[in-house]
Design brief:
By secondary structure, the chain is α/β, with parallel strands linked by helices. Helix 1 crosses helix 8, helix 3 runs parallel beside helix 5 and helix 3 crosses helix 8. The chain has 8 helices and 14 strands. It is globular, with a radius of gyration of 20 Å. Helix content is about 30%, strand content about 25%. The chain folds into 2 domains: about 140 residues, 3-Layer(aba) Sandwich (Rossmann fold), CATH 3.40.50; about 180 residues, 2-Layer Sandwich (Dihydrodipicolinate Reductase, domain 2), CATH 3.30.360. Bound molecules: adenosine-2'-5'-diphosphate. Adenosine-2'-5'-diphosphate binds next to helix 1 and helix 4.
């Protein structure tokens, strides 16, 4: 892009939308104009960005008629995205969409910039999908393993923060801490519980979140037949997802080389000094854009097995920061 882009933030009043703004500001992202969009409920509200007040506009069929938006960052739910992303694209924008609506469309790239930036070039529909939060953070260490030793099989077990369920998710945990079991986001009280239930249950007994991790992993790593399984669990943590990832590699590996491969991988930080109780932690990862990996050890039950513990801020790297990184790559094209 050879000019400063016009930006639209769709879902600007939400948890991820407001983090888009925070990250854009931190990165001093260049722009000519920026438009804040949300539902009719928020139209007319004011959002302050880089010291200037912006009035929130209602998203509708004509939102992209006159604004000449170049890049639209969407985080306003799947239904909104299904309807309005093509309208934004028809108006000349490239949409970076945080919902699950377009992720598995073969004509829509699904991108983690450190892992498969090559997929960003010339998106057929003018839409680029931001992967699921739990998938994004797993991709960095898996790509490092894939490139060096190949991957036979992956087993995910996740420990996911309530912020993944937006403002309502945060509210349920805050209520629980205050001794109130009222639930708005989850099927059961989250405080004092672990809920093996994220998104809806499907016919095969998996949750939709689990199938997202499985299918998105295959698409991003370009391994359509990779053997992957997942159990995704909501835990009483406000911010950052933690994941135990068990990997069986194609080729034998040396643990020291695995650690080196992780240290060399962009965006990945090794925190692994168990004698001093150093390993990735949700509270420490919160507010950061890196993915943290530790507990790097052999799975001694199989020939070429590896166990790792991976933590990242689910609203930043798992959503907003990854989308803004995609937008940064678009500027370079
Ligand atoms: P609004 O605040 O006006 O409802 P979160 O995931 O934190 O709940 O945020 C969801 C975001 O998506 C909010 O900014 C919300 O706007 C926006 N949103 C939800 N439905 C629509 C819609 N139909 N059109 C535009 N924005 C929507």
């Amino acid at each position: 892009m050879n000019k400063k882009p016009n930006l639209a933030i769709v879902g600007a009043t939400g948890l991820v939308g407001s983090t888009f703004l925070k990250v854009l500001e931190e990165k001093d992202f260049p722009f000519e104009n920026i438009y804040m969009m949300a539902s009719a409920k928020s139209a007319g509200k004011t959002i302050t960005f880089r010291g200037r007040d912006y009035t929130v506009e209602e998203l509708n069929e004509h939102s992209f008629d006159d604004h000449r938006v170049d890049i639209a960052l969407f985080s306003a739910g799947g239904g909104t995205s299904l309807k309005f992303s093509p309208i934004a694209a028809a108006g000349g924008a490239i949409v970076v969409d945080n919902s699950s609506a377009w992720r598995m469309d073969p004509d829509v790239p699904l991108v983690v910039p450190e892992v498969n930036p090559e997929d960003l070039v010339s998106p057929k529909k003018g839409i680029i999908a931001n992967p699921n939060c739990s998938t994004i953070q797993a991709m960095l260490p898996l790509k490092a393993i894939l490139d060096n030793w190949g991957i036979k099989r992956v087993v995910y077990s996740t420990y996911q923060a309530v912020s993944g369920a937006g403002m309502k998710g945060l509210g349920d945990l805050k209520n629980g801490v205050a001794g109130n079991d009222t639930t708005n986001a989850f099927a059961h009280p989250i405080f004092g519980n672990c809920l093996p239930h994220i998104d809806v249950f499907l016919e095969n007994g998996y949750t939709k979140e689990e199938m997202k991790m499985i299918n998105e992993t295959r698409k991003i790593l370009h391994c359509p037949d990779l053997r992957v399984t997942a159990t995704t669990v909501r835990v009483p943590v406000f911010m950052s997802h933690s994941e135990s990832i068990n990997i069986e590699t194609e080729k034998p590996f040396d643990l020291a080389d695995v650690r080196k491969a992780f240290e060399a991988f962009p965006g990945l930080v090794v925190q692994d000094d168990v004698q001093n109780a150093v390993y990735p932690l949700a509270r420490e990862a919160a507010g950061h854009d890196e993915v943290f990996v530790g507990r790097i050890r052999r799975d001694e039950s199989v020939e070429n097995g590896l166990n790792i513990w991976v933590v990242a801020d689910n609203i930043r790297k798992g959503a907003a920061s990854n989308a803004v990184q995609i937008a940064e790559k678009l500027l370079e094209l």
